[in-house]
Request: fold
Amino acid sequence: MAWCTLPRILGRGRRSFFNKDRLYVALYARETGECWRRVEERYHWAIIVGPKYEVGEKSHGTRYSAREIMTAPIHNPRQEVPWWEYEEQKIRMGPTLGIMVRVLVGKVRRRDRLVSIIRGVPMRPETQDWSCLSWVEEVLDALREDGTVLGAPAPPWIRIRDTAVQFAQEKEAARRFDSPPGDWGFDRTKVPTFDVLQMRASVE
Reply:
C-alpha cells in the first residue's frame, strides 16, 4: 500500500491498520489552594484512548476517569461528603478544559477488551485516601494482568506516574499554560505529550 494513500485512510470511519488507538494517562489541573500530601495529588488523573494520528478538530477520543462529586448521605442530608463515580466521555484530542499533559503508555490491540476492562475497575469511595490516581493505577494493573489488550505491557506504574508529574511540572515552569498565552513558541493547538515507551517528548 502506498504511503500517499494515508490521508484518505485517516478519513474513514473505522480505525485503519496505520491509525490504531493509543492509550494515554492524562493530567488535569485541580483547584489551587488545597493542601496536598503528595505532589501527584495536585492533578486530576484520567485515561484517554484516541487515534495515533490526530487531524485538527476532527480527531476525537474517549476519556475514562473516576470523578469526585459531593453528595449528602441519607442518614445526614445536611452534610455533604466526597464521593467517586465513573465517568466516560467523548472528547477532542486537542486541548480541552483543564488538561495539562498526557503520557503515552501503550498501543491498543483490542479496543473492545480494553473498554470492558476499564469499565470493570470499581470505584472505591469507602476506601480511605482512594482517588482518581488510585483508579488509574488499578486500570493499568488490570491491563497488564490481562496481557492481550496492548501491543506490549504498559511500563511500570511508578515510571508512568513520576514521568507524568515531572513532565507537567516542566511545562508549568516553562509557562506553557499561561493565560493569556505568552509568545513562548509552543503549539497551543496540541496537548503536551510524552512517550513513556521511548522516554521522549513528542509534543512540547
Q: What stands out?
A: The chain has one domain: 20-203. The radius of gyration is 18 Å.
